[in-house]
Amino acid sequence: MQSIVPNAYPAPTSAPGIVRILCLGDVVAQPGRRVLQELLPGLRQRLELDMIIANGENSAGGVGITATTANDLFRAGVDVITTGNHVWRHKECLAYIGKEPRLLRPANYPPKAPGRGLGLFSLPGGRQVAVLNLLGRVFMDAVDCPFQVAERLCAEAREHTPLILVDFHAEATSEKRALAWFLDGKASFVFGTHTHVQTADPMILPQGTACLTDLGMCGVEAGSVLGMQQETSVRRFTTALPHPFVSAKGEPGLNGALVELDAATGKATVIHLVRRGGVSVLAV
Ligand SMILES: [Fe+2]
Ligand SMILES: [Fe+2]
Q1: Nearest bound ligand to CA 133?
Q2: Fold entry, domain 18-277
Q3: Which of the ends of the chain has fewer CB neighbours closer than 10 A, N or C?
Q4: Rounded average pLDDT per 10-residue block, the chain, 284 residues
Q5: Spatial CA neighbour of 76 closest among 38, 43, 103
Q6: Neighbours of ion ligand 2 (CB under 5 A)
Q7: Residue 28 C-alpha to ligand 1 middle, in angstroms?
Q8: Ligand 1 center–CA 194 separation, angstroms
């Protein structure tokens, strides 16, 4: 059974042939970008990280992503940015995504959409890591079947590397857990994003695929609804009027997961929840 370490950082496994990757949930607005800038340089060193992946779909004002906010994340130390249903909120992203190979959009959008959903990235030393971004279909916009697209693109990625990470940006826990089982043995780590709430279900499936239903978010949690001011969110629900969202102010949290992968097989050996903030788990 994997350990859950909410308040202490795990000691890196310094065995050769292990790749350590930190995946971070939806980065929300300026506070989310700021917490990455503050923490990632130290975390990269302390956790001996080979790669950092973050979902950036909320990095611009809480909804969408721009070249400026993407560059903030890259400068903070993020290697690959995934996105989700808010990727096209700012029109400039339509042109920008074609020029920035480190920025992915869900692969199961129609093929004529700009950008791409599968990227192959080189680590220092030459190892390659594939990152695949997908969008769910339960309570989400209509897109191509994420299961079929995942099967096809994981096979394509595997021709280059066994290290394959999948950001499944989806609402329903059932759909996310099902994709993880569907990809068991075909991907190294299947993690969910989009709900902004970290789930407490990190596990490694029998064929070596790590999974977590949702990474959570990087943004202000206290006094907010998913990183946005609670007042405007409550007003939207109580009036059914389109009050514009306003990002929350305050001390941001950081949520994600750390996986250790066997570089030769792509199988996960360890998964840890990563969370900045005061939570405690009472193990019984
Ligand atoms: Fe989001
Ligand atoms: Fe989303």
Answers
A1: 2
A2: Purple Acid Phosphatase; chain A, domain 2 (3.60.21)
A3: C
A4: 48 80 98 97 96 98 97 98 98 97 98 97 95 98 97 98 98 98 98 97 98 97 93 95 91 96 98 83 77
A5: 38
A6: 84-85, 194
A7: 7
A8: 4
The residue count of the chain comes to 284
Q: Which of 148, 273, 269, 278 is nearest to 213 (CA)?
A: 273
DSSP code of residue 65: -
Can you spell out the DSSP letters for 132-193? EEEE--TTS---S-HHHHHHHHHHHHHTT-S-EEEEEE-S-HHHHHHHHHHTBTTBSEEEEE
Which CA distances in Å does 193 have to 55, 126, 168, 243? 7, 28, 6, 24
Nearest CA among 22, 215, 14 for reference residue 131 = 22
Q: Considering the entire predicted model, what is its pTM?
A: 0.95
Map out the domains of the chain as residue ranges.
18-277
Which residues sit with Cβ closer than 5 angstroms to ligand 1, an ion?
Answer: 26, 58
- What is the distance in A from the centroid of ligand 1 to the CA of 19? 27
- Neighbouring C-alpha atoms within 13 Å toward the C-beta of 71: 6
The Cα 76–Cα 38 span in angstroms is: 8
SS3 category, 252: strand
What is the distance in A from the centroid of ligand 2 to the CA of 64? 9
Known catalytic residues are 86
The pLDDT of residue 282: 79
Q: Is 194 left (phi over 0), alpha (psi -120 to 50) or beta?
A: left
With the CA atoms of 273, 247, 137 and 236 taken in that order, what torsion angle do they form, in degrees rounded to the nearest 10? 130
